[in-house]
Protein 1
Amino acid sequence: MPGGQGRPAPRQRPPGSGTIATAETQAPPPTSPQRRLPKRPPVASLLGLTLVGVVVIWLVINFTKGPSNFVEIFLIGLTNGAVYGLVAIGYTLVYGILQLINFAHGDVFALSGMVAFTVLFSVFKIGPNPSTLVIVGGIVGTLLITMTMFAGINVLVELVGYRRLRGAPRLAPLITAVGMSFIIQNIGLAVYGVEFRSGSDLVPHTNVFSVFGVSYQWHKLMVLLVTIPALFALTWFVTHTRQGKAMRATSQDMEAAAVMGINVNRTISITFALAGSLAAVAGLLYMVQFNVRYDTGFELGLIAFTAAVLGGIGNLPGAVLGALVIGFIQAFNEGLTWHAPGSDWTRSIVFGILIAILVFRPEGLLGERTPEGG
């Protein structure tokens, strides 16, 4: 109490009655020199705006040279970005609660894709040229099995690898995450070998529509038909359910959430279960679109992590936005014809974006700037 004499001064409530007072709400106002946010160098901002302007001009020129080709490539980027978004959300969910980059998440995704292949073609025994009903039933059944299975596997990863390290220095769980990544990757190698698994012939490659030279195929539309409801369901769960509110409370202050009666261990386990389920959905969709093997999750996991950082790690809409941006960048770079760097430069461009974001805007596109994070 200030002064230590006389009657204690009445406690002032922070703005927003009924909320838990935190160090940030009790700290001096942002006008204090200690709380003033660092300003970005004007040269860096000017450089960023110039780069964005050059990219926009390049896209406009490519569009004018071939509008139909540009729109088709845009749709490919949208499809790929949707898959990246499912994986990126898994990263951002875990980071939002534990402040942990779960590097094993990409390998969970790859293993789930291979398991989905086994379930589709060995358990359900879907043969060539199946009917639409068989395709839909097989995909739905496989999703139910793999989502349940990898929700459990991800919970086990948290229980064995991360739970006892919550109070440890941040380097300890980070090293454990890398170790978990190698363990899951080698399990996939031991069970499935080095061969690729692909279900690209499962869904027809016929056109859903073909207008003005722009065509879109059923196997690409299927990705959006699965991804969009999954993202809406996750958003509803996090924002409208009791458990979703518990997740948000735990991400803000784990100790305060425990004091208020929230079962923190169960909440974290549910978060890992959700991330594992989304990885299973992404694994099946990727396997149906392309091919997957034991080490596929390494590169795609890094791409999804880049998307999460780009959008603002810990921010669910930001993860989706970042994934779509990465999907468009990859598609435009590999598909456009006028002065496009080409597929050999895709990795360099994606990870160059990661470095630039970490240096110039570490909070991401939709993240909030903080004095601690810059």
Note: Residues 67-98 form the longest helix (32 residues).
Protein 2
Amino acid sequence: MISRSREVHIQGPLLPEGSDPGRRQRRVTSSLMPREPLEAIVLVGGRGTRLRPLTLSAPKPLLPTAGVPFLAHLLARAAAGGVTHVVLATCYKADMFAAHFGDGAAFGLSIDYVQEDVPLDTGGGIRNAAGSLRGTGSADPVVVLNSDVLSGHDLDAQVDLHVKADAAVTLHLVEVADPSRFGVVPADASGRVTAFLEKTPDPVTNRINAGCYVFRREVIGRIPAGRRVSVERETFPGLIGAGELVLGYHEPAYWLDVGTPQTFVRGSCDLVLGRLPGPAVPGPAGPSLLLAGAWVAADASVSGGTVVGAGASVGAGAIVDGSVLFDGAAVGAGAVVRDSILGRGAIVAPGAVLDEAMVGDGAYIGAGNELARGIRVWPNVRLEPTSVRFSSDV
């Protein structure tokens, strides 16, 4: 595979203190030189409890996001970043992944599937999946992606920095407005990570772990096998404590943790609107995305990056803004749906109002209901007319 013809600007020193300039370098950033195949492990084994009830029927990485399963966006971006072989580390509803993605040829990838019999956490999952990697070099870079994250950062540049710096691990770091909600990752002026700190009301930095790592292959081999291991609480602190080079790669690109209903909707809408260019989005950027067989009444309003799934419908005079309608969902005449998710086959009757609501597959929301403030309706539940309201005006 030939590197894309562009210059990659490396952040930080090429060889931070403690690196070995004699170690063989696998990749060089050059538009003229060939690149060796790059492999990735994608962690998809979580149960997605923060997105229930939608994840009762499908794992979170398979939920429809901007018209395709969320994982399709990660795979497309990985392929664009030079990855050629992916190992999916599965656990919850593992069989569904192969049914969706097969051998990966649609993405220009080769995909293998590894199932955990019991959840092994991040580090354990990486170690378990590593047995299906094809590379044999101890210094080979291996990309690890967390399937909770939507990111527009430059994976090429992160890998190049990792190899040139001879790091044990290179972490993508992002700055957030409220770092007290996360564990933070301080680094020195050279980019060397100095600690992993748990959530605190007074964080020492606003940079956090963004969920994309590049490991040296032999470092993965040192993670204990067959048991739960957290890279955040065990592997990374252990490497830092042993004096090994854990490097931070900071880039102010688009980044979003899509693990909550609010951020899941936002991520889907941002992809549809083009705020994050997505090669897997099945249509041009715009205010809405209508999939095959979707129907929207001429006087209905569908905006804000809304997706209307295959066979879904929006009735006369209805307003749907910044929402995700799964396949076969229906919004009745005059209904209002904002910042919400409707599961497969869910029905919102005429005149109902939803604002930041999540409605499970096959549920029915009768006329006069007003659902808001993060309310969740379980699959196949039927709310009769005017059963739930958040205001007294009926």
Note: The radius of gyration is 22 Å.
Protein 3
Amino acid sequence: MIRVWSRRIWGTARSARWWGERSRAPFSPPPLAGGGRGLGAPTPPPNPLPQGEGENSLLTLSGIDTFYGPVQVHFGLDLSVPRGQIVSLLGGNASGKSTTMKVILGLVRPRAGRVAFDTSDITGLPTPQIIRRGIGSVPEARRLFATMTVRENLLMGAYCRGDRVAIAQDLDRLLTLFPRVAQRLDQRAGTLSGGEQQMVAMARALMGRPQLLCMDEPTMGLSPLYVDRVLALIQAVNKEGITVFMVEQNASLALAIADYGYVLQSGRIMLSGPAKDLIRDPRIRDAYLGGETTKVL
């Protein structure tokens, strides 16, 4: 059934008059359908909050307490992602980063607190509803459909959409943005390299026309060459008007492209501020960027 659906979309693209005339118009979201060494005790953020927080905040987490059984993961977690920015959540292993992403996507329901997206409360909504509201997910380890082709994986990202001509147009636009993906359309996704799979995962999420792109460890396991390519693509996507929230353990890479950053340790925000300030903070350098007595994460 999936293969039949994808062939019909592809046929629409091939027969449309615009085919071959690569459109470079920016992506526009559709209307809404409905670790390392410790940093010490928490201190008030010394830097200003993200520019535009409040009325211009696209995503806000307020007072989040999360549990796995009796074990508490988050302790009053607060963070904000302003429209049009790249915001990075940093932290070592078992700091609560991936659980933060699961809370946003509705995969884990917090015991207390609120998740707001575009001013609407989405706390505890089923994941399909959250995706339809305009949040795209690039999960840790990519999670592609390994036995399906790259083309079929991309079209699965538009499964919630019914506008076939627009889907085909978006596919064409994405193949321009991801030329390496365009060269692999008929190849099974499971046979791609890690870097190529990451690009497919990004493109698949963008096929849903999200307002917010949530990325969990996008550089994990990639070669240095593909790390640079993926970071450049994240910046390119952001310039198209898509807000990016990135969970990352490699602080130097994340802060190099982010506008704002948060540092999470043991479920609590320990530091936050503009990325250009955090990357110069001695506590960040020692704990995450390889200080004199600290190993690089």
Note: The chain is about 35% helix and 20% strand.
Protein 4
Amino acid sequence: MPQATVTSLAAWRAPAHSAMTLPRIQSLVQRRPVQAMAIVLLVPFLALAPLHLFKPATAKAHEVVTPVQVGISFNPHRAANMGLNYRTAFTRLEAMHFRVIRLSAYWDQIDHEGYEQLDWLMNEAQRAGQPVILAVGMKALGWPEFYIPASAMPAAGLTQGQDAASEASLRDATLAFVNDTVTRYRDHSTLIAWQVENEPFNRAGPQRLWIDATFLRDEITTVRALDGHHRPLIVNAFSHFNLLFDQASARQGFDLRQWLGFEADSAERDGLSVLNKGDVLGLDVYTAIGYRFLGHDQMSRADGDWPDRLAKVRDLARRQGKQAWITEAQAEPWESGPNSDGDPKSTSPQAMRSLFLNLKDAGFSTVLFWGSEYWLWRAEQGDSRWIDTIRAILRAEARAPAIAVAA
């Protein structure tokens, strides 16, 4: 396959969290030797503490397992970077009759070019009767995560690890963008929900930025006031993967409680705290992530307890009168470099199906796959296994009810 195509594919992959790499540990040792020594002294204790992680997963839905509402996310920029026409790609996906397609308003593009591309997607969905979710805010679907236009960037820029919403001028500009976008699309008949920001409580992107709960509540209040159709709101989180990657993406950094197996602060709990009854906590689930360490390709796997951890979050949401959806289920590779996508190690069509069945067994009735552009690209390369696997899942779940559209 052409090198340019593979490189551009890697640049737009889901790995919103590619900043979570092990070379950061080397940097920590160099910059903070005292803290690093403390961690070294704790290692013998910590090595024994997380034994709870090695228990086999046992999550099963207690009720009868019902057909799953299967959806996807679609990013027109990723499609274009894979050599696909975004309009053709979107209509091909519509023809597969997903229960919902998640879209995003990319602020930097809209600031520079206007709403033309998103208008086409939203109008096409309305024409086809395709239910959609629209994500709004400064953080959107896909790398580099934060899509802040130059016109809204603070004069001094943003610093590594910063709460992006701590800048007053950026807060005001973001709320104005949210206002304009919600007002523009609030009367679209196939829009079923708003997503506010994307994984706001997880550090991500080149600068590992995040968004605080106070500002997220301001955005949520703005969307509710403007919507007029009582649509549910979605706040999503990069769900439990393993201790190392969880700590790297957590806004609060290292948390000893989690290593010891106790309940700790998490992006999932933070998300639930800002939602109302009837709203949706979105969980983004990946089971294998590639990375480079000391110049070598490595693969990190999710802890064996990930289905149980997801089931606990689902049950917590239900007790609060809220919904829990899978807003991203890994269905494309997350490799350590751009040259691995032709022969990926992180996932496969069989692994996609296995992940889906695990999520269904755990009681999730709405699952959105991540990777739709990749499946179309693979099919154009002569490999239809990926999209055929999704078609088989859709056939098996054909009895799932439609997702209700707001009046």
Note: Strands lie at 69-73, 100-104, 132-136, 191-196, 233-238, 280-285, 288-293, 296-301, 323-330, 366-370.
